[in-house]
From TrEMBL:
It comes from Gadus morhua. It catalyses: an N-acylsphing-4-enine + H2O = sphing-4-enine + a fatty acid. The gene is asah1b. GO terms for molecular function: fatty acid amide hydrolase activity; N-acylsphingosine amidohydrolase activity. This is Acid ceramidase. GO terms for biological process: fatty acid metabolic process; sphingolipid metabolic process. Keywords: Disulfide bond, Glycoprotein, Hydrolase, Lipid metabolism, Lysosome, Secreted, Signal, Sphingolipid metabolism. It holds the Pfam family CBAH. Belongs to the acid ceramidase family. Pathway: Sphingolipid metabolism; Lipid metabolism; sphingolipid metabolism. Residues 1-47 form the Acid ceramidase N-terminal domain.
Length: 310
């Protein structure tokens, strides 16, 4: 409820999702991560723009966890290289994230402003829909000029860049059209490189915005005249070949091309997203969104063996 004070907005959800602490301990089983965040990083909350600092305070109060933005902001890589469970053949952090998956309806004056699939305790947005206006997701982009540099600059007092998922959330809340959203996502200075995947409510409105921290490097748009009726992003620049060990793009595009534009529905898109290795051991949830109806539906996922670890 966006009419509530920021410190109160997340309390009912966090009270119900006490397993957040299990996620922290999955990263560092000794509990030292929570201890370190508690002692060394609370000052970060004081530097965050309104309303994010107050919301994190509310999350901390409801969950009993200390304040620590790095835990909320940069640990959402879904567990790659964060501990492999040999017995269950799964990534430990990815499994810990699954119980925290929630769908959130953000409302003002008792009306939906936007909806999002997120993790309890994480106040930024990675996946969301503004009903009848646009849909938006964010992917991590690997670059030498990475997010660790932006976070270090933030700690040292340089506050020009915006936290990526805070930008995504701000766009979902405040942008009034696809074009306004695209402009903000392309032009806002960021703390880390990213991919923004944006869909609109009119024919041809769909794009992948490839971002460095400072500027937009490329915008790949749906172009029906060129036969490009969809765009697809799997954490690699579209003009470069994906890493041969992690080629999810080729099978994903193969499935989309076999499905064809005529047969695309939420059901067939779910099938595409369920095809290995598009579906893999790091997959925590699948979300499907329909902008025209405002529908957002999410599924916690498991990839049965044999399954690629990424």
């Amino acid at each position: 409820d966006l009419d509530l004070h920021p410190s109160k907005r997340w309390m009912p959800l966090i009270t119900d999702k006490k397993t957040i602490k299990d996620l922290a301990n999955a990263f560092v089983p000794s509990g030292k991560l929570v201890e370190m965040v508690d002692k060394a990083l609370p000052f970060l909350v004081e530097t965050l723009p309104y309303p994010f600092g107050d919301e994190l305070r509310g999350v901390a109060a409801a969950s009993g966890l200390p304040l620590g933005n790095l835990f909320h902001g940069r640990n959402l890589d879904f567990g790659l290289f964060m501990g492999w469970d040999m017995k269950n053949r799964s990534w430990i952090v990815a499994e810990q994230l699954k119980p925290l998956v929630v769908n959130v309806d953000f409302r003002r004056n008792n009306q939906t402003v936007f909806k999002s699939t997120t993790f309890a305790g994480y106040i930024g947005m990675l996946t969301g829909i503004k009903p009848n206006v646009f849909t938006l997701t964010m992917n991590e982009r690997f670059s030498l000029d990475g997010g660790y540099i932006g976070i270090l600059e933030w700690i040292l007092g340089q506050r020009k860049g915006m936290w990526m998922s805070f930008l995504t959330r701000s766009v979902l809340e405040n942008a009034t059209s696809y074009e306004v959203a695209k402009t903000r996502l392309a032009q806002t200075e960021l703390l880390a490189p990213a991919y923004f995947i944006l869909g609109g409510n009119q024919t041809g409105q769909g794009c992948i915005i490839t971002r460095s921290r400072l500027l937009s490097l490329d915008i790949l748009e749906i172009d029906l005249k060129l036969g490009r009726w969809y765009v697809l992003e799997t954490n690699y620049d579209h003009w470069k070949a994906p890493l041969f060990l992690d080629d999810r793009r080729t099978p994903g595009m193969t499935c989309m091309n076999k499905t064809t534009q005529t047969n695309i529905t939420l059901k067939t898109m779910y099938s595409v997203l369920s095809t290995k290795p598009v579906l893999n051991k790091l997959t925590t949830y699948t979300t499907l969104m329909d902008v025209s109806t405002g529908n957002l539906e999410s599924y916690i996922r498991d990839c049965p063996n044999p399954c690629m670890p990424w």
